[in-house]
Amino acid sequence: MQYKLALLALVGSAVAAPALKAREATAITGALGNINTALQGLDTSVKAFNGDAAQLGDIQAKSTAVQKAITDGTASVQASQPITIGDALQVQKSSTTLVTTIKSTVTDLTGKKAMLDQVQASPIVLMQLQMQKQAAMGLQTAVVSKVPAGLQNTAQSVSGQISAALDTGIQAFS
């Protein structure tokens, strides 16, 4: 009887393990997706900015939403378990999409720098970019720690692209 229970427990855990790993990957890709969505909202507000200081509140709110998405995402990733190689490919896709959105948002933001200077908002933008970079570094560390050892260099490379994009914005507003 005990043998059957032990066998059942072993089989049950073997069946449940892939589902748990998939949930871990979903937690990470979901976090990255939420950050991407928040960035898209910020980018839309940045693109719409025409130099009217009244629009700054919307940009500030969207920037705060990005910061919150990064912070929440970091907590979610930290709470997850390591993922499989197959799941890491899904995470890489989400990361690549995020890099593209970050680059686009930073490009659009730096394109509005002259207008932001006119309404004296550039120091605030700089501070927000610096805070977002700091938060992104925490997220990057968390994600890399969940990826299998053989893929951590690739994950760090993607992280480097995120840092580089944010650094471009920081340099532009410094």
Written description of the protein model:
With 174 residues, this protein is mainly α. 87% of the residues lie in helices and 0% in strands. The longest helix has 47 residues, at 2-48. The N and C termini lie far apart (71 Å). Residues 1-21 have low confidence and may be disordered.
Number of strands: 0
Number of domains: 1
Unreliable parts: 1-21
Distance between the termini: 71 Å
Task: Supply the number of helical segments.
Answer: 6
Shape: elongated
Order of helices and strands: HHHHHH
**Structure class:** mainly alpha
Helix content: over 70%
Largest sheet: none
Give the radius of gyration: 20 Å
Q: What share of the residues does DSSP label as strand, in percent?
A: under 5%
Give the averaged pLDDT, no decimals.
Answer: 88
Write the layout of secondary structure elements.
Layout: H1 2-48, H2 56-79, H3 85-111, H4 113-118, H5 122-146, H6 152-173
Helix pairs in contact: 1-2, 1-3, 2-5, 3-6, 5-6
